[in-house]
Batch of 2 targets.
Target 1
Amino acid sequence: MGFERCPDRADGGDDRCATPRTGADGDGAAQSAEAVPTVRLEGITVRYGGITALDGVDFQVARGEVRALLGENGAGKSTLGKVIAGAVRPNAGSATVDGHLLDFRPSSAIRAGVRIISQEMSLYPPLSVAENLVTGGFGHRRRLVRWRQAQATAQDHLDQLGLSIDARRKVGELSVAEQQMIEIARALFSGGKIVVLDEPTSALGVAEADRLFAFIRRMSRKGTSFVLITHFLDDVMAHTDSATVLRNGSVAGERRTAKVTKNDLVRLMVGADNRIASVVSGAEFRLKPVPESRPRLRIARVAAPSRIADMSLEVHPGEVVGLFGDIGSGSVELAEAAFGVRQAHSGSVEVDGVAVRSPEHSVRTLESAYIPQDRREALAFPQHAAANVTIAQLHRLLGLRLARSKEFAITSEQLGRLSVKSCNPRTLPGTLSGGNQQKLLFARCLVRPPRLMILVEPTRGMDVGAKDDVVRLIRSSAAEYGTAVLVVSAEPESILAVADRVYVAQQGRIRAHLHDCPASSSTLMTAAHLGETEISA
Amino acid sequence: MLNEWARRSLPTLAPLAALVAVIVVFSAIAPDTFPTLANVRNIAIQSSVLAILATGLTLVVVLGEIDLSFAAIASVSGLVASLVVSQTPFPLPFLGQVIVGAGNEVFAIIIAIAVGLMFGLINGLIVVRVGVPSFVATLSILLVAQGLAYYFAQGNSVAATTSIGRGIAQATWGPIPVIAVFAAAIMIISYLVLRHTRIGRYIYMAGANRQAAVLSGVPAGRIVVYVFVAAGVLFAIGGLVNVGRLGSAQADTGLNNLLPVFAIVVLGGNSLFGGVGGIRQTLVGVLLYSILQNGLDQSDLNVYMKPLVGGVILVLAVILNVYTGKIATAAATAGRGPRDESRNDAPKTSLETVGNP
């Protein structure tokens, strides 16, 4: 269908096409001779089976430009990234790099200088920086690798790029941001001119992300073009030149980021208002007072390895408490301590007055549930959905003998209730989207509504629509079952969208407790940095 | 084109197809001796000890661990039973020569099984408590158990066997060899435990993703110990039956089984990464391997050529496994639309996905 529409695309029959043209023309500075697009894709259409992933998409990146590629999950961002990198061959459309036609094969994309850096790290952590750079394809002209020379060359390149990283260090010892910089450095060493980054900051704290973006900016000034596939609109606003927004496989709009608000971008992405969208646009939320009831989770003056210095917090039945803290603040470690994954060496962690001992004790006796940040830690991919959903409650729901029909009935009911799309009890989790995998984990928790639910970054890396689903799910679990929920996140938006009260953690301590007061994203950021201890009306 | 069901079932069907192919080929090569009832009995008897040992190993492999010590546990258990029943004095460290158990049959068997259980427990505790990778832990225990067997035997062969072991190994019920029924019973019980009980599910989950199992409240550490213990007991039983079949016990009786049992577990389509496969896969592996060996024995091939041909056929079977696993993975992800672009982890195309449940 998209195929037939392509020929008359030129005469602007589709208003989606008109937007990018005006967007680009509107900016005079971009029209210099150098702004001839390095990469230009036209009428890209990709179909998987009966589904159209990309429908006549036009996309371009100029030399030295940092361009964001935005859109909800399924909008086609990653597919477009793969088309640029030659990993996916489109059904229709053409692509040129510096005016040379590409034939959509990885080898020709690499020859043309396109490099894609995907979410999964492709470095070898046990090897040194220099060794990793060498595997990228330089320095070993002959069979023998001259390590000293390779290391000197590597250090030279790093210095030229302004990276103060010792080439002899092991990659595994570097921070995640530094590793990503090394990946980019490697892409550039091997002749990369256009670098596609797929969600580069989803594993980074704020400070680390800023370092990475500063590096990207320096590289772009030297002429490297970047395509940044991301969910983080703040990053887009602060660190990119322009953004292309995809919706349902088509270009919804193309904007210079200097001339657009975050809200505009959200509206382009989803075209609908929801709670996440309003938090993103800076709305204030009224936080609730501390309930009168006995706390369900009570953490008192806990110190634990390796990051918790002294933390206390309480979560009451039926409320959702947010714990806002960057990587390194100790927030994730505190969540682990609350579930018994990590042992405190002083202080107390209690659920309904009973000390937390181990994950097994938490699940079976205290009736707690835990969803870690990395879904891959929590799902058994070779096992079907039903096994993944019922695992935590097998001892209660099914006798010593497993009744498959009963197990499947329980699973189907949960999948239906949480509206997990394209999933039945036999589905393997690996075939589901990230949002649906997350819902599968919620299904596991809610098979038997827990008394305490601990969620680490429950909405991270999701698009705005899926985030909203998860937020509703968390709030309704607390309201319906009286579950006490602790949500840990480093994104202020995710916390505010879901929480009744908020604790702010930094450097192993609780810096602030926000309750019975209005709060916005900036309130949280301020609290984290000012270190007030109590904020209320 | 194959339809989707067929493609997803390929990892199960392919080893079966290989099995059928092997049967057809050997029936054509040796039409007078191969496809006969007597030969079927032969194959059943030949494969029974392998089947018992492979069942024990399967439990461990599904859990994502490995147990190399099975051959030595089988050796030492079978030997100990024979020593006890024959009232042969045997050396115990620090105690000197002792006669254990006054030739009591049941006592001999209990001791033999206790030896298997103890080595299984040691394996499990070293892996869980100390955190030694099971490959290393069980390799060391292989040497310890085998060393113990050499020490007990003092270079002798013990002609006595337990009458129970002999009975299982040599008796028949009408045309049916008891040993085959015995092995089948062990496989069926193991199958039921793995597939239809809670602990079986815990084994699969802990094998597929240990961390996920722990976070779901599964007592993964205990499960690992249980499985090594259960496997140790099965290895001891295998050793007893093996000695019963051979009629005498030597220190290294079990060692010949080391590589065949390994080949069997992998051949049928069990993933060494855990969480995938099971007794069904192992059964196919047992049959494939035993029929192949039996058929080669009956063919006119040069004796020195047979191991080579057997090896080549096994390589082909493993290639077929991996290849069909890839096709099945492609089928499982083909239904996935581009909408799922952010999915976290597609099944990897390797032995890992062979034999998806």
Target 2
Amino acid sequence: MNQFLLIKLTAVLTFSCIAQSVQAQAYCALRDPVRQIGELYPGFSYMSHVGVVTTEARKEVGTRLPFTLHFNELGSHTLYAVSNGDARVGYVHVRPEITRWGIMEITWSLDADLRIQDFAFQRCRNRRRAIMEGDGFKKQLQGKSFDELIELLNEDGTNISAGGLEVSTLDHEFAAAIVRCALKTIAVTTIVWRDEVKTAMVLPESRNLHQVAEVYTPAVRQALERMFIADNADIERKTVNVFRIIDGSKKKDS
Amino acid sequence: MRRFALLLLITIFVYDSTLVAEDKLFPWNKSPSEQIDSGLLKQIDNWLTYGDPDRLANHDSTASRFRNNLRMTVDLAGRGIIPHKGGNSGSGSVAFIGLDIHKVFSDDNGDFATLIAQPYLTKLNSVKGPHFFEGDNDWEVVNRIMNVNFTRVFDERMNIKVGHFEVPYGLEQPLNTNGTLRDMTHPRNLGVKADWGVTLNGTLTDYEYEVGVSRGTGNEFFDSEDPYVMAGRFGTKHVENFIVGVSFLKGTIWNPGALNAYKRGLVDVSGVIGNVIDRERIGLDIQYHFERPVSLFAEFNYGKDFERDVFNTMIELDVYNPSKSSMWFTQWNYYSEEYDADLGGWESQIDGSIGWRWTPNNNWALSMMYVQEISAKKLDDASVQLGSKFIAQLRYRF
């Protein structure tokens, strides 16, 4: 009888593993990324939103990306919503990525439309981290949406795509891991905190962003000349990016 | 015995009432298909994680407010210990069942406080525990960590923590080893691991700090003999691969075991009465994380027990696999103090340990550790026997 009970208890324990909603470490070891929030959004207030990354969420991430979350990434996680007064300005989320240098943890800062604003390493053993923390690399990720980031990786996400990022060949693997982490962060935020983030989005949720290759077309230059600002040196025109927004929720004839 | 009888009665009452209930609580009263959908632990797990959906539908309800930003986990662990000394072996065990709660309080202006509560029912079976256990087979409710950190009194540069917290000193402060076999120097170097009181803590641009004043009694709060602890640690920021911290401690700590160990080094113990030991420590701790998943930790402590000089050191090397699901570690401790000259002057004790921790998923953790005494403090020319122990722990969180 005792053996029978033991077998049943073992079965119940095994079933309960399926939920995977906890974290292996005790909660006293949790650290909020308060320094990074203070550095990324100085003077702004933030509010925690604890969400559960389930096995279903893991599967959904797998449908959007050629890779998915590691099982240790499941469980309760926090999205920090950053506000300036009443206005939601963005989010902060910490996500790990397994690399051959061990687990790398990155604090990501996203804008209200879940584009990359900035990032900081919370844990990274790679000695070349300072290069990736420099403006040269960061500027290549800043402002990028999910669709633009995925184009920076090769088909299976193991390396950066040809011409995708300007980094030393020594850093290809490292850069790819950072981009994978960024993609997972946006995907997880969209899936787990869907209700929380969609209310603050400026752009439609089902949009497609396409970067316009040529910003200063002859027609635009003519228009600027008519307004006598064609030679205005106050604007650094090389840094101006223009995007075409295609709202997938609208019908073609509407 | 009376406590055991009470527990047994409550268990029988709860169990019997579920037998007649329409919705059977225990899984062995259900068919296999019912168990898959609604086993007891599955139900508990779902409730701990998501709460009752009907109650949570109302965002202004107490349940909703309680559930908002809450992490709550049941933590079960069993620890087996096999000591060996002088040709004699024994065995003992410790069982833990506890709740691990983490709750962030927020209002319209953002987060303003974080609660951590970890009450653990701890049962010893033929094992010598800390001083707050009344015997080798006692059980106690151990308050591992139980505090509220007020995070919006100023900004991230200064928070105020109130409650039961790890004494902010040395490597334990940034690492937190609660509930694991691996331990830092707090129990033997300070004589108190967690205590009741208040700390100021925060993160500056390049530094972190925590400074506290506490009761000096450890798990329980009482004022007999008026113990106290003042302690603090200042360290470089934890996000770097090379981290340095300096710590201090001053206090009179309620710890009869530590006081008895102190008396061993005295020729005349008649002047030492009570249960508190007067301690001062200053410490230096270092962490270095190599490029591959290997980490080195070291802690150096100098201070006094009453008027006696003390020097304690710990060095640890950790090796992980890339996903950190396996960790191997070796730790070496050196404890020394200056006995009365007639008893031999400076005496030291060295022990080394090797250990392994395996966390295959977020629920399970299996740990093993072997500790060997290399040398022991001895009185005058007395011979000493060196001991060893093997410890294994299985932990399940859901």
